[in-house]
């Protein structure tokens, strides 16, 4: 019995290590994807949520790039759709489409539009107009319940996005319906388009606000895959909807962007691009 436990622990450590290696590659993919894109993309917002999306796809969700339309797959909704490059980089790493398509980002007729679109293999919901993802997730969670499917629905929302009233309506609805197959993750990077989130409209105390709506709520370091995974595991034990507030850094991995809003919508200069790439390469 102990030998089996030790083997499982060992396997877990190996899987976490492999995930961390993948995350480094995915950070570079996002940077490379953005290099040629006019008039710039949301690099900072993408870099802040990579660890979360990668942990979901590589360690938690039941899904298959060979059967993207498998009806019992878990679903992921990137409600902060402007971070689409992060999702595309993860999906490509998982095998949903070739990385060669990165160069077509935001081009006419490309499968990789500036915001998630159902034409992209692996994308479960279109998004971009902030505030809608959690409501879509409620629909999917209800559908799963009606079908008797065990699939789970994960929705990633920005902290600035929480300005949208629809987020709070959805929080109330999901708790009322006791949707224990629905998980909300908030990318708490502290910035939104105009300024720091707490300057634009105070969100704190976010955890107790969400809890007061009837959600089991956890706070984690959103750049630590093990902590993210622990919280995701705990969410499965909840008898109602569960939320994770993931504390993150906008622009994570690139020092001149980290913790600032510089990367909100960015077109790199040549020097900036090379500096960022060198830093990510050094880290990998
Ligand atoms: C309904 C709506 N209003 C405005 C925008 C424009 N917009 C794009 S990104 C953004 C800021 C979002 O901030 P946050 O959710 O904190 O995401 P972050 O970029 O910080 O990760 C805004 C206002 C939008 N996409 N949708």
Provide the helix percentage. Answer: 40-55%
Overall shape: globular
Q: Classify the beta-strand content into a percent band.
A: 5-15%
Q: State the order of secondary-structure elements, H for helix, E for strand.
A: HHEHHEHEHHEHEH
The main sheet comes to: 5 strands, parallel
Mean pLDDT across the residues is 95
CATH homologous superfamily grouping: Thiamin diphosphate (ThDP)-binding fold, Pyr/PP domains
CATH architecture: 3-Layer(aba) Sandwich
Instruction: Kindly report the oligomeric state of this protein.
Output: single chain
General description of the model:
The protein is α/β, with parallel strands linked by helices and 284 residues long. The chain has helices at 2-35, 43-60, 84-94, 133-147, 165-176, 197-200, 206-212, 225-235, 270-283; strands at residues 75-78, 153-158, 182-188, 216-221, 242-247. It has one domain (2-283): Rossmann fold, CATH 3.40.50. A 5-stranded parallel sheet has the order 1-2-3-5-4, with helices on both faces. The longest helix is centred in the first third of the chain and has 34 residues, at 2-35. The structure holds thiamine diphosphate. Thiamine diphosphate binds at residues 42, 45, 48, 80, 82, 128-131, 158-161, 187, 189, 191-193, 197, 250, 264.
Distinctive features:
globular, 284 residues, binds thiamine diphosphate, five-stranded parallel sheet, alpha/beta
